[in-house]
Design goal:
454 residues; alpha+beta; D-Amino Acid Oxidase, Chain A, domain 2; 3 domains; 5-stranded parallel beta sheet; 12 helices; 21 strands
Length: 454
């Protein structure tokens, strides 16, 4: 994407220094002279966890579409991370994949995954953003309110409560030409809008009650298999257990177990290994003698949540929301970072087309987010809705037919390279869900059914 020719204003504020917040800030420097990121947490100076990202302890997979987006936003970042150990790998040849109880073949697909941890990815992005002279990263800054003009038709800035650990406390009110909420699932924008006299957005929530448990291990020295990731998927509605082993940038394994429908994996050592053994013999054999490097961390905030800002009859100008602040997906599918990056790119495109008049930005941009998020939402909630205990889902004859067909696609990919590739392309957001209904996929599914009937 080329540098924007016309500036949209002098100063922009991003609420939240998450990955999506940092990505958004980087892109906003194409349109504003100064971009201030307000983060209530403290950023570590090295690759490390921080309190504000509890899910960072668990396995993260940057989808192929996300890898492409990151390279567009930060040219050369892939090569930089590869030099530090974060390499890409083939999602067919380098992956052990169990679907519906069967191990798939391992053909070379030419579709890449990324084996870096969340902390490594966030550190790499943060270093790029810190090097941008147009960005100010203010830490220990808790945004308590968005501020409107006298007519209450546009957002003119934010109110800040500085935390004790703030390195450099700035003003308690900060004005801007644009304010972006990238504060994630805990976004307070619905309440802030209500205080300014606007309606709160409708919320759609689909909750499959999935929980994680994660531990890191030293990869056994005698382990000689050549895969980079082992992924065992659950089988709805019968088997709620799933998990993954990923070799991260430092050569160690991150092992995440997941249980749906409130079958949460235990966080004690004996329970953790028992859960793995019941899930897959091969999975258990890989980790049973591996040396633990961490304690076991649990996480259960995994509901799909969509705040429907695009349905509001009015929104204040000079304001927008990105990432989980708008649409948060069940993290098991690894879609959040990629959708957030694509939304930030769409925001940059929208700003390039608007000039200085940002009065209709929220109205236009939140509708663009729908175009990006809707097919991904369909993928996540359709899979989650297959569990009878899921709350917020609704099914009819068409969705039940879709579930049946996708099951047949998954069973077909086990020994069909073309279907395998088509499925991974959809999963990695390189193709829309409709790609699985292309004639070559349908014919392969029907062929398998006929062979089994014979």
């Amino acid at each position: 994407m080329e540098q924007a020719m016309n500036m949209n204003g002098r100063h922009a504020i991003v609420i939240g220094g998450s990955l999506v917040g940092l990505i958004t800030a980087q892109l906003l420097t194409r349109h504003f002279e100064v971009v201030t990121v307000l983060e209530r947490d403290q950023f570590p100076d090295e690759i490390a966890y921080r309190k504000g990202v509890p899910q960072a302890r668990h396995l993260h997979i940057l989808l192929s579409r996300g890898i492409e987006a990151m390279e567009t936003i930060f040219p050369g970042i892939g090569a930089e991370m590869a030099e530090q150990g974060g390499k890409q790998f083939d999602l067919g040849q380098d992956a052990m994949l169990m679907v519906r109880g069967s191990w798939a073949g391992r053909p070379k697909l030419g579709i890449n995954g990324f084996d870096g941890s969340r902390t490594f990815l966030e550190y790499s992005v943060r270093q790029r953003v810190r090097a941008n002279p147009k960005v100010r990263l203010w830490q220990g800054a808790d945004v308590t309110q968005i501020l409107a003009d006298e007519a209450c038709t546009r957002i003119a800035g934010v109110q800040i409560a500085w935390r004790r650990q703030a390195e450099e406390a700035g003003p308690e009110e900060l004005t801007a030409d644009l304010v972006i909420d990238a504060s994630g699932r805990s976004s307070r924008t619905p309440q802030w809008l209500a205080q300014l006299g606007y309606d709160e957005p409708e919320e759609t929530i689909v909750n499959a009650f999935l929980g994680y448990a994660t531990r890191r291990y030293e990869r056994p020295s005698h382990f000689n298999d050549d895969w980079r990731i082992m992924l065992v998927s659950a089988t709805p509605p019968y088997n709620p257990r799933g998990g993954a082993i990923l070799q991260e940038e430092n050569g160690n394994w991150v092992v995440t177990l997941a249980g749906t429908a409130r079958h949460y994996p235990p966080t004690d050592e004996a329970g953790f290994l028992d859960f793995a053994q019941k899930m897959s013999t091969e999975f258990y054999e890989a980790i049973k003698e591996a040396k633990p490097l961490s304690s076991i961390s649990g996480y259960q905030r995994t509901e799909n949540r969509w705040r429907r800002y695009e349905r509001l009859s009015r929104m204040p100008g000079h304001f927008a929301l990105v990432g989980d602040s708008v649409c948060a997906f069940n993290p098991i599918y690894g879609q959040g970072i990629t959708v957030g990056a694509l939304s930030a790119l769409a925001l940059s495109e929208q700003l390039a087309a608007m000039g200085e008049d940002l009065s209709k930005l929220a109205h236009l941009f939140q509708k663009r987010i729908v175009e990006i998020a809707e097919p991904v939402w369909l993928l996540a909630t359709s899979e989650d809705s297959r569990w009878p205990t899921t709350e917020g889902s609704s099914t009819n004859w068409f969705t039940r037919l879709s579930y049946w067909y996708v099951d047949k696609v998954v069973l077909t990919l086990v020994d069909n390279v073309e279907v395998h590739k088509a499925f991974i392309e959809v999963q990695q957001l390189l193709q829309p869900p409709a790609h699985l209904f292309k004639p070559f996929v349908v014919m392969a599914v029907l062929g398998r059914l006929l062979r089994r009937r014979r």
